[in-house]
Amino acid sequence: xxxxxxxxxxxxxxxxxxxxxxxxxxxxNGHCVTAILLWLAHTRLMDEAAVTPRLLLLSPxxxxxxxxxxxxxxxxxxxxxxxGTRGSVSAAVLARSARKDKDGNATVETWGADLPxxxxxxxxxxxxxxxxxxxxxxxxxxxxxxxxxxxxxxGGKNNTKIETxxxxxxxxxxxxxxxxxxxxxxxxxxxxxxxxxxxxxxxRLSKFRRRQVLGEYRPLRYSLDEFGxxxxxxxxxxxxRFPDGMEARxxxxxxxxxxxxxxIGWTERAEAAARWFSDERAxxxxxxxxxxxxxxxxxxxxxxxxxxxPERLR
Length: 314
Known about the structure:
Blueprint: H1 13-24, H2 30-42, E1 54-59, H3 66-77, H4 91-97, E2 118-120, H5 132-143, E3 150-155, E4 161-166, E5 171-176, H6 183-186, E6 189-193, H7 199-204, H8 210-214, H9 217-231, H10 248-263, H11 267-303
Parallel strand pairs: 1-5, 1-6, 2-5
Antiparallel strand pairs: 3-4
């Protein structure tokens, strides 16, 4: 294991959070656990991030624990006393949220370490139409992946003033697995595949009761804050070395996560997780041509009243 000149932390806030998450949700495997924990840690170190990977919880069917997990993550990150997820979000809300600090005050500073992540539930519902507003939302989610990005629109009296919104910020989303989610957005995401718990797994889980969770999350949130302060300035993203075979976009997303992992002795754990996610993305890409063909055929049939001569599909 390489040495990065920082003390290896044998026990940390992420271990406590892992146990807490496992109490309420079934996560697919240890690689997904690693990615989620490192993503949580990076929300405390946004000033060091070259990009902020979006976290996307996907499942092929409802009742797979996505919303519960998203709520748990929001408890650990949201400025609201009791967490907060959005059932939907418009481009206007998304841009304006990026201008508010933890106290709800407007700011023109870059959305970074002092501004909270956003949690969006059922994000796939936004992409079941061709609404222009959804295109704008996607543009913000895509551009806000990197620091220094701005969203501008006309506003003020009679729409004569240019309003500028810095939009760099962490985002976690959930949705039903669907080809409707834009490919450009998905490539900016660490995708966590969620499945329904088996009857045996459900028996092992604690029932998510909001009043109970409210009594549990605060010490974990404070520990995560302290964790960020402890390793802040002690890790070097510029020294990160990536496993062979990673795509450039995956390297961008994992840089800050690897830097955190190196600082706490999780290098091998993070490398294994990154390889797993890269393999999953490659496998999904191999299948995407067939999915794309079926999706395009369905769109053409929809536009032609479900009746179409075969030669029109060529």
